[in-house]
Design brief:
224 residues, homodimer, DNA-binding, three-stranded antiparallel beta sheet
DNA sequence: TAGATTGTTAATCGATTAACAATC
DNA sequence: TAGATTGTTAATCGATTAACAATC
């Protein structure tokens, strides 16, 4: 069977989920969310989960979830659901994210400290390997097992570690300067916790954390 | 002209953006993101913005943006773009979010402190009116102009202030207990900064912050 | 077996995109 | 005017949903 592009596919074609072997944007985003829920359910000792339960936690329709997963194989058991651990492995393989990924964290203030001491990134194989701050008072001090470095030390750290991602936990007025530093050092993905708009070259991807934006439309649906 | 539902609409119907006077989910989400970018651009003193520029910052297609906006009126000037301040007012009206909204913040640790001292919520009219922690050592101390209270004081605070939103900035192992507290007090929207999965009644909406999820699929598109 | 849930189809709806006349 | 950008159309693609046979 051919997909809409008219070419034979290396994987079973399903409603355009795959474009020439590459996942469609939406599918990849949803698979990541499934993985997050699976990881948390796994922590609590749960062993199987149904598409219905996954749907409740991800706000993705249960049929959509079954359809997304069945594009890659028959991972479920009828009448039972999906085994969590094997499914996590499958999704990690599909997303090419089974390994460890090193990240550089900018900002050793309250937010940076909160990030370093939490598991939000660690749970998905992300490890903070460098912590940077422009405040000379903080440079040299330690947070957890990390020593705070100057921003200018990023290139040196990147000689030892392959760093593709930088997380900016700095005040909005410092965000652009930090972004410039990490772009210059060759980082390709920036996660921006500040509300500032960042100017970056086209090949660099910026993801901005936007709690207020999510609350705005949640409120809209609450009030109407 | 009728929309796909076959009923006359109180607003100009545009490709199903409006469902019986209520915005479609996707439209409301995008309008919120436009508002965030407009607010930041406004801060830097910019007065007009083109759909192309908005597209770069929101990762929404420029045609989509023009189409979303033109469903509510002709806000732009051909050859120039959109005036930022009036457009913000229009979008706030569409989203019914022109006023101030009070939020309760749980967790007076590093993350809670970072939130209270930043503008991410304040920029969109959200004001933290109550700060709560279960750590008795912290209760009574002050962060900014706020005094840390016991979780059990939430109902009392809600007698003075209408609080629809709670933000949970607590460790994952405390998140469910905090969620139970806020649900019991009648809060309808929870923003969860922890990675924990929360069990809440059907009428309560949970939004979970998921930086790692966004990085997972950003990495996928970087590696493929 | 009986109950539950997957895998899959088909139909509909919303999002995306290119293109371009209108007009500032 | 010339250049730029909106407002709008039309065509395509992906997401959503209900429904249900297959099967654990």
């Amino acid at each position: 069977m051919n997909d809409a592009t008219g070419r034979d596919q290396p994987f079973p074609a399903q409603g355009g989920a795959l474009l020439g072997g590459k996942l469609a944007f939406g599918v990849a985003a949803r698979l990541s969310r499934y993985l997050q829920v699976l990881a948390q359910a796994h922590k609590t000792g749960t062993e199987t989960i149904s598409s219905q339960e996954l749907a409740e936690y991800t706000n993705v329709n249960a049929t959509q979830i079954r359809r997304d997963l069945s594009a890659f194989g028959k991972f479920g058991k009828r009448g039972v659901g999906y085994e969590i651990e094997p499914l996590m492995t499958e999704i990690r393989n599909i997303l090419c994210s089974s390994g460890q990924h090193s990240i550089a964290l900018f900002g050793a203030g309250n937010l940076g400290t909160a990030i370093v001491t939490s598991d939000v990134f660690a749970d998905h194989g992300f490890k903070v390997v460098g912590l940077f701050d422009i405040d000379q008072q903080k440079v040299g001090t330690g947070i957890g097992s990390l020593r705070v470095r100057q921003n200018s030390e990023l290139p040196a750290v990147m000689e030892d570690e392959e760093i593709v991602i930088a997380v900016l936990a700095v005040p909005p007025e410092e965000a652009q300067a930090a972004a410039d530093d990490v772009v210059r050092a060759g980082v390709k993905i920036i996660f921006n916790y500040s509300e500032a708009l960042l100017e970056v070259p086209r090949e660099v991807t910026v993801h901005t954390s936007n709690p207020a934006v999510e609350l705005l439309y949640a409120l809209y649906f609450y009030f109407t």
